[in-house]
Amino acid sequence: MHYVVRNAWYVLAWSKEIGDTPFSRRVLDEPIVAYRKRNGELAALLDRCAHKLVPLSLGQVVDDTLQCGYHGLQFDGSGACVHVPGQDRIPPAARVRSFPVAERYGAAWIWMGDPERADPGLIHVIERYDTPGWAVLWGERQHHLTHYLNIVENLQDPAHTTYTHRSTIGNPASSEVAPVTEEADDHIVTYRWTLDAEPPPIDRASGAFEGLTDRCQYYRFFPPCVSRVDVVTMDAGQEHTEANMDRGRRAYSYKFLTPETDTSTHFFWMHVRNFGVGDADFEARLACEFSRTFQEDNVVTSAMQREQNVTGLRQTAWLNIDAGPARARRMIEKMAAAEAAEAAGAASPADAVSRRTVAAS
């Protein structure tokens, strides 16, 4: 795959998706199968039997192992074959790759790179999760038919919301407000405040505001795969302090991007908010609204991908609003290039030995 970082935690699934039957999903263009052991722990393996490459997800879970549905070989959570029907000897090559997995924030995270680097402490911290007065909404996974970097750029682009999301989060008053982009060591942020304006449809429908509002959108991207949008709508005329923003309608809108292939992405979203807490009907409506909003993005970025495939181009003109998206893309491209260079350097001595061995033979 192009421009992917393997040494990172990606969301494989929401925890509720994985049970005691094989669960399959493609991640970074590799087939993954996951399952739960009897103690509830997760295991994740390459979804190819070491014998004939039949997907293990076509088999079943037996005594904390995955049993191949073709010849019955059983693999434990480490990927080792522990049973071959009809013979005592287990071939040394009867092993499949296993992947580090961890559960946090209602999600199953997978590490696709060097397992020695898989520190669960590197999983992104979710703001206000499990904080009194704040509610968490887990959205259904969406399948976006585009390279994940197109989604990264979309998530760093406040300017598109006015036009792509006219009936949900779009606000015409924001269209002439230029976004500001800033870059830190570990993330990039693009933001803007829209002052003394009518609230957007999603806030106006709630009836929470009688007059004009100030509204901010802070689009933070933590490479390679986490977007956090801090959205605040508050009565106009207040100082923009953290305390005042918390007294308004505030939400942290998370998107977790898991590349599937060069032209498809698993799109997970989570919404952490300080309004409508405990209101099941409101939460159901909110889930529908956000699902519709992100599908609107899917329509646009998928169409973009189709034209990129046809033309071989990414874009032909550049605007001021591209500053944030371009920086986010460059951060990931640099990370991927550094990782590839490191992997090539580590492989060089072994490759050289291999070449000498072949020549000698």
TrEMBL record:
GO terms for molecular function: 2 iron, 2 sulfur cluster binding; metal ion binding; monooxygenase activity. It is an enzyme of class 1 (oxidoreductase). InterPro entries: Cholesterol_7-desaturase, Rieske_2Fe-2S, Rieske_2Fe-2S_sf, VanA_C_cat. The keyword Ribonucleoprotein does not apply. Keywords: 2Fe-2S, Iron, Iron-sulfur, Metal-binding, Monooxygenase, Oxidoreductase. Its EC number is 1.14.14.-. It comes from the Bacteria. Residues 9-110 form the Rieske domain. It holds the Pfam family Rieske. PROSITE patterns: RIESKE (PS51296). SUPFAM superfamilies: Bet v1-like, ISP domain. This is Toluene-4-sulfonate monooxygenase system iron-sulfur subunit TsaM1.
